[in-house]
Model the fold of this input.
Amino acid sequence: MSTNFGTWVGAICTLAMFSFLVKDNRVFRTFQHLYVGVAAGYGIVFQWNSIKNIAWDPMVKKGETLWIVPIILGLLLFSRFFRKYQWISRWPLAFLMGLGAGLSMKAIESDFVRQVQATLIPVTTIDNIIIVLGTVTALAYFYFTIKPSKVLAGASVIGRYVLMLTFGAAFGNGVMGRISLLIGQMQFLFGDWIHIIGK
Amino acid sequence: MRALGNVDRRILYVVLILAVLYPLIKPLGLPFRVSDWTTNFYKAVDKLQAGDTMLMSIDYSVSGGPDVHPQAQAVFKHALNKNVKVVFVAFVTEGVEFANQMIAVAEKDGKKYGEDFCNLGFAPGVEVAISAFAQDILKVFPKDTRGNVTADLPIMKGLKTAGDFKMITEYATGIPGPAEWIRQVQTRYKVPLASGVVTVMGPQNEPYYQSGQLVGLLSGLRSAAEYEIAMKMPGSATASMDAQSMGHVAIVLFVILGNIAYLSEKAKKGGR
Amino acid sequence: MRKEVPLGIAFATGFIILFEYFLQPLWKDSKIWAQTLQNWGTVVSGFAMGLAAMNLITVNLRRMDPKRNAEWYNPVVLLLGMVAMAGSGLFLPGGQRSASWVFLFKNIFQPLGSAMFALMIFFIASAAQRAFRARNMEALVLLVSGVIVMLGRAPIGELIGMWLPSWADWLVKVPSLAGNRAVMMGAALGMVATAFRALVGIDRAYLGGE
Done:
């Protein structure tokens, strides 16, 4: 067994989480709260350092006074805690919204135009035919704006099966991913802590 | 038959744990091949020359760490073996510590911080931060995680925008992920971009791989194991593959058992 | 004015970001301003993270009352964890390289986070046995493709037969590619439509009530 104090602490934390599998209990809930607290504390440190390094230090030490604008905007977010002044927090929210909206419009090129280009492949093999037809019929499935004609309804049915194959593959991969997480925990508990699994 | 469909869940949990644990204790040695996703990722990194600089964006959280961290470790090792310099950034807070863990191992092997690699830290804002970083690295990361002025680090010489890197690899458990990097960086700067993601995100990003927007894709622990095999340096990811197999067999058995119970109940009700 | 000014801010910001390339002949600093706005965005986002922490503190301070909450010690644990982690990173010598920061991340944060998400496989196992039924043709297609991918993507698939990994690969690279591409394209159109609505002020949900 490990003699490292940190490993024991980690093992206790892991077992506390796994105790939920027996039933919901106080120990699990306490450690869950500990996780939330530590995660929040972790985030606070990065938030503070980011603001200090990106805006505060350049403003104070290098005279880049324009950084006062985002600092004020950021501080205005905290007006949400004062009911009378809550409306002020709309300004920084609107700023972030405008930024996000402007940047996300680039999806038209990367997620639409490039994908349409990639679908325009020679339909000379069965696989390519399935890719092209599958994409079109799956898109037809999501078309709810008009009453479907017979062709659209038929395409939509095929599209539904294409999507079932897609979700099946996603399910298979999802299970794979979760088992990897369990493997990580087993390696930690039975390798690093109890030393049953060799390195 | 009804009992088959309603097995006590704790029995299922024990079976699953044993199925995963046994091959970890007594490896089965099941061989596996390397997929083209991993092969192309490996080739893209292998094409880099000594002295080239690669960006590694560690964007995974502790929730997906065991699935994605082995990928980043394998690629980092590959880069160091080729004397490729690596700049770490993170747009998810936990990424900073995962990068530090990899750097600590490399420093023990004699590599130098600031020359062979550096960790610029975390920038908040997800896609906004990625876009801002891509246009001006030094504005978003004026200092690294050790308090050094970024512009003064030898490794950062000549690196002003994302386009100055020879290759970008990013590792994600969700957002930001390949989509954000493709939108804000790859589309604009045309730098070769390869992604490592959690297993569930693999098929979702196949369209980007097929269209050429991603030059390589690693999907979960399996891809990390494949990368280790490609490097001819099997490690912990490779050792986990037998457990992965038995875990899958257990889940498939559960599905089959449940459906046998369901179909026989259905047949019984239909017969009455 | 309480809604018009924020709507104007959102529009102006989004417009500069979107059209900086086209604005350059008319306004040569458009690229610099677009970059500046994005740099400002990282700072404002940093404050937003602090907002979440502040909210957590106020909610949990209220929950610490033993008269109202039988498990009053849980908020105490939460706040102590937050103080310990933030304190190690901000006030101890070495900051994020201090021994206590590394200890807290490696032995508390990482194990708790990983274990919490590893629990999901057990719920999937239970659901696989109880709920994943082939009730109709669509469910059967989903289940069969899921089983093929699960077995085909693990080394056991190659032991069963080389056809299994080939089928799994084909599923991911052909029909799943088509479905994912359709979802991606639909989501892209939806994202652009939502962004456009937010920029021109049709969608004002982010402003909240009066």
Notes: DSSP finds twelve helices and six strands in chain B. Chain B touches chain C through 62 residues (CB under 8 Å). The first helix of chain B runs from residue 2 to 5.
